[in-house]
Amino acid sequence: MPASDELSLVFAALADPTRREILSRLAAGPATVGEIGAPFPMSAPAISQHLKVLERAGLVTRTTQAQWRTLSMQAGPLDRASAWVVECRREWNQRLDALESHLQHMKTGSETNKEEGS
Predict the structure, then answer these.
(1) CB-based contacts of 3: which residues, under 8 Å, 6+ apart?
(2) Phi and psi dihedrals of 62, rounded to 5?
(3) Where in this chain does the record put each HTH arsR-type domain (predicted)?
(4) According to DSSP H, which parts of 3-43 are helical?
(5) Residue 117, Cβ neighbours under 10 Å: how many?
(6) Cβ burial, residue 64 (10 Å; 0-12/13-18/19+)
(7) CA 20 to 30 Å from 19, out of 52, 58, 73, 92?
C-alpha cells in the first residue's frame, strides 16, 4: 500500500523529471494546461496524469475561468519537504560530530596509554 501522507506524496511527485520540469515552469507563474504540456513530447493524457500526481501532492492547483484551466504552483508542500530535509541534515551532522569526537577521544586515549606504558 503506497504511503499517502503529504511528505511521501511530495517526494513521489518530485521523483519524476517531467513533474519537476512542470513545477519549474509553474514557478515562473500560472499557465494553462496547454502551455504546460506544449514543450513535452508526450500525449495530453500523459501530461494530465503528471498533473494529477502534482495536484494530489498539493504542489499544483487548478482554477477554471470560462473554458481556460489555469495551473498554479503551491510552495507550501515544498517548504515542508525542504524543512524535513534540513532537519534530517542537522541530525545527521550532529551524529557525525559525535562520532568524530568519540573517535578522536579513543585515538587520544590510545596514544596516552602507549606513552604511559613505555
Answers:
(1) 9, 12
(2) -120, 130
(3) 1-93
(4) 6-14, 17-27, 33-37
(5) 6
(6) exposed
(7) 92
The residue whose grid cell reads 519524476 is 16
pTM: predicted TM-score of the whole model, two decimal places: 0.79
Using CB atoms within 10 A of its CB, is residue 18 exposed (0-12), middle (13-18) or buried (19+)?
middle
CA dist., res. 67 & res. 69, Å (int): 7
Number of residues in the chain:
118
Q: Which three cell numbers stand for residue 6?
A: 503529504
**Dihedral sign of CA atoms 56, 60, 65, 69 in order:** negative
Cell of 30: 500560472
CB 74 within 8 A of CB 23: no
Residue that the C-alpha cell 534530517 belongs to: 88
Q: What is the mean pLDDT of the chain?
A: 92
